[in-house]
Specification:
Distance between the termini: 41 Å
Oligomer: single chain
Strand order of the largest sheet: 1-2-3-4-5-8-9-10
Strand content: 15-25%
Mean pLDDT: 92
Structural class: alpha/beta
Number of strands: 10
Low-confidence stretches: 1-20
Helix content: 40-55%
Order of helices and strands: HEHHEHEHEHHEEEHEHHEHEH
Largest sheet: 8 strands, parallel, barrel
Number of helices: 12
Radius of gyration: 18 Å
Shape: globular
Length: about 290
């Protein structure tokens, strides 16, 4: 009841915030990533047909900013015609460092130029960042400084995107375990909570192969969902289909598509008490499309 009252108050104070959310409306999000951007030219019909058949309504599409916007136009228009929103995807571990901020902002600028050159039915609806600076050597030598630079980059790209177009969704990927890492100057606030607060939605990489029980998908995202409930944000829960060397409990590579869909279907009920739960994501098209049934 506590969360309900806070959420109700939040909507009264900020009534327009969610008017520019996912255009899929009340329908739960089902997202996937497409990293091999050249496939939008070599196999556009195959990608869209697969995504539509699987119920995908949100695609994180890797954008090569060296390409002209016209390169992606027909593919995005085709995806949109099949009920699939497209968010421009980019990300490198090094994008957590201030010196690489211009690369991030160039992606935002590219999206702005693209949307100015196309009709509404081919527009990009959002920007999605996959920045994983915790894989950098600097994370081990000076974690707090890396976090500070990462936060600066996040503030920069969120601000620029919203100035460009307030309706543009801005999201990012975060691992489930990042909620154990505190901000440098605020030990009671995790970097996960801060990232959730700054984005319209986050996609939590809860890479496990069962929906419930200890060390399961639902168990790993509890804190992120509670944070997002308080903050009035949205959380998409992601699973993996790529073969993992961390153990066969991480990915659905061994179990296959049918088992994955069965486990994902359980999350709607398991996580229904959280208003922040927006849906699921499968990483990624490249591996999912060849996953055994």
């Amino acid at each position: 009841m506590k969360y309900f009252s806070r959420t109700a108050l939040f909507f009264l104070m900020f009534p327009t915030l969610f008017l520019t959310g996912f255009s899929s409306g009340e329908k739960p999000v089902k997202a996937t990533w497409l990293w091999q951007t050249y496939q939008t030219a070599s196999a556009p019909d195959q990608i869209v047909a697969f995504a539509a058949a699987k119920g995908v309504n949100l695609l994180y599409l890797k954008i090569d900013t060296s390409l002209r916007p016209s390169y992606y136009h027909s593919f995005i228009q085709k995806a949109r015609a099949n009920g699939i929103e497209v968010h421009a995807l980019g990300g490198k571990s090094g994008w957590g460092l201030e010196r690489n901020r211009p690369e991030i902002l160039s992606l935002v600028d590219w999206v702005g130029r693209y949307n100015q050159t196309v009709e509404t039915d081919a527009a990009i609806n959002g920007i999605h960042l996959d920045i994983e600076p915790y894989t950098l050597p600097e994370w081990k030598s000076d974690q707090n400084e890396v976090i500070r630079q990462w936060m600066g980059n996040v503030n920069a790209y969120v601000t620029k995107a919203k100035e460009l177009d307030p309706s543009l969704q801005v999201g990012c990927d975060i691992p489930f375990w990042l909620d154990k890492t505190a901000l440098p100057d605020q030990p009671v606030v995790s970097i996960s909570e801060w990232l959730i607060s700054r984005h319209d939605h986050v996609t939590v990489m809860a890479y496990r192969d069962r929906a419930e029980g200890p060390n399961s998908i639902s168990a790993l995202v509890t804190q992120e969902l509670e944070m997002a409930d308080r903050l009035g944000k949205k959380v998409i829960v992601a699973v993996e289909t790529k073969e993992s060397n961390e153990g066969n409990f991480v990915s659905f590579y061994e179990e296959g598509t049918a088992r994955m869909e069965d486990e994902l279907s359980k999350l709607s009920e398991l996580l229904a008490s959280h208003p922040s739960f927006a849906g699921v994501a499968i990483h990624s098209y490249e591996y999912w499309s060849v996953l055994k049934e």
